[in-house]
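new request in #modeling-help
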Amino acid sequence: MKYTKISSDKHFDLAKFPKGEISKFWLHIINNGLGEPIRVPILVARGQKEGPVLGLNAALHGNELNGINVIQRVFDRLDSSDIVLKGTVIGILVANVPGVLLGQRRFNDDFDLNRQAPGSENGIASSVYIHRLIDRVIKHFDYFLDLHTTGYGKQNCWHIRADLSDKETKNLALLQNPEAILHSTPDEKTLRGYASSLGIKSLTLELKDPFIFQPEVVNESAVAIWNVMNYLDMVPNPRSNPFEDTWLVEKSRWMRSNAGGILTVFPEILSSVEEGEKIAEVRNIFGELNMEFFAPNSGIVIAKNVNPIAQTGSAILNLAHKIERVPCHIT
Ligand SMILES: [Zn+2]
């Protein structure tokens, strides 16, 4: 498949994209305050043969950038191969265009696009924006991978959040070989939750850290998505990706500090902690110990706060406590 020239439109008519080609497309979604278009960059690879529609979405939170690079890699791989694609891959390179340009998680009206679904044509700016993105693009998907990272001041392991009670969704998570898979049934105001309510098999990929392209996790995720496409019979050959074990997490929760001050969190990402182990401390600005924190149960660390300036109520770490080590074999 080869890239074609760039086009732009207010409408997203999937049937008009040429088969056997990769189209670069700007979706004119709303206007800014000077009446100029705000446009969402999208890649569309339409196969010669019929098959499912796989949707990839990056930077719904404007500081979460790794997914942009992942989508570029997936389409470059399609471009450089002579495989016959079955079905369609749609990659929204930047979902939250104003947020990315401002370097911030939220939309430019200070609302979180991932808490606004399904949005409204008569709502505030972020509500109209997400409504049109869903109505024009996302509703076409059969399968949906929403690519995120953790937020400002935090570190994440590479993990997937998905409803593991659905067997196909669980397989789609396992075959991606993440470091952990968290069972979660999403709120319908999130994009994953709303897409799920439309019958779209939807998973959230948490690709490590914000504000950066991290080549290792980008590469692993691009391989993982290729394996998803192979599982869905869209491309012929899986890419090499040795089956490894992963953490299957039934329950996890963010621990928070009920003291404010200078926070140090001790365990590293993916390390095991024992019940009663000291995991963090808060000191005042003169270095005096204010509060110590201990693990309420044994488990592993999915994510942690690395910002030392921690007001009362700040996150400490995300502790997965109902866990099982399983091979990434699909059934
Ligand atoms: Zn996010």
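bot summary: The chain is about 20% helix and 35% strand.
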